[in-house]
Amino acid sequence: MTTPTLGRLESVPALDRPDLLADPVAEALRGWAHAAEVGVVEIDPAIADTAAMSEAYELGLDTGANCVVVGGRRDGEERVAACLVRADTRADVNNVVKRTLDVRKASFLSMDRAVEESGMEYGGITPIGLPEGWRLLVDPRVLDIEVAVIGSGVRRSKLLIPGRLAADLPYAETIEGLAGTLSP
């Protein structure tokens, strides 16, 4: 099976370059049936943020998918989820995420905590290799991306993955209306 390409991004099989993956990502890929369909591409960490990378590689924001980590409490119990949404949208944390997690208030996890608990770098957190117990909420529009650019767990690379595979990730739940469009 060939690895995905997108625009000027030509990937190699992700597991051929574990040096470009955070440890939890490499471990998760080793046990995932679809790992052969995931590619990795090395990038300059200075352009790891979605907008900068899209501009540098002449990619539309609709080819990227961002992963944000959100948490909230109900009856003393904390509930954490990663939300995977297309890069040209924004997770509806105050409504859909809050209702889905059944919490009084949902908010983004602090950078330090998200990094520590995920074992991934800030700006590189990805839905592959999330900690056990975290839910993964996926906006259905991600599944329609032919080749999605997502984090690799580190800022110096990106994964290229057929968007449809996001629904097959561990803990994945497709949530209608998870993301709204960004304001211009």
From TrEMBL:
Source superkingdom: Bacteria
CDD domains attached to this UniProt entry: PA2301
Domain YbaK/aminoacyl-tRNA synthetase-associated: 45-163
Gene3D superfamilies: YbaK/aminoacyl-tRNA synthetase-associated domain (3.90.960.10)
Protein name as it appears in the record: YbaK/EbsC family protein
Organism, scientific name: Nocardioides endophyticus
